[in-house]
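To whoever is on call:

I kicked off a structure prediction for a single chain this morning and the downstream step that reads the tokens threw a length-mismatch warning. I double-checked the sequence; it's 186 residues and nothing unusual in it as far as I can see. Pasting both halves so you can look.
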Amino acid sequence: MPLPLPLPLPARPAHRRVRPPAKRVLDIAGALILLILLAVPLATAAALLHAAHRGGARGRDRAFVRVPAAGLAGRPFRTWQLHTAAAGRFGAALERCALDAAPQLINVLRGEMSLVGPRPGPRTDRPDRLLVRPGITGLWQVSARSDLPWEEMALLDRHYVENHWLGMDLAILAQTPRAAFRHRHA
């Protein structure tokens, strides 16, 4: 007896939407919550940076800068950051508190970055980093940041790329405030 031909799969109804992955939902929800919580400090920092940069070279009086980065699959984009260069002690304080990177939450909402992943850079000599979206925080940031040599940071990034899952992202997010506090008081 001949084997029956497989039945075609039923077409998915047009009105049924595909649900986004849990990581993307976490990214959007987390970025929105953080932007709301940080709105006043960011606006204050931007105003103070704008005032500090006034009188500098033309075009340097902006509080925000866009820095080139390589995203998922090497797709180029520009990250948002507070312009802390030449802002003296205030700029250094913003960097210590990691508030200079908070505008990257906009990149997270746009889908260019994630809350958790390897740090974005303009290009990379490690193509494995391009298999995931770059993140605001990551495994090496919560692993004694400045104490690690570059080789170990690369190994932690690779470990994240090869083994990431939602539980790991949640654990990294939970450790990030403590790591930032530890870095600030180091």
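Update from on-call: the warning came from a stale cache, not from the record. Cleared it. Sanity check on the structure: The mean pLDDT is 82.
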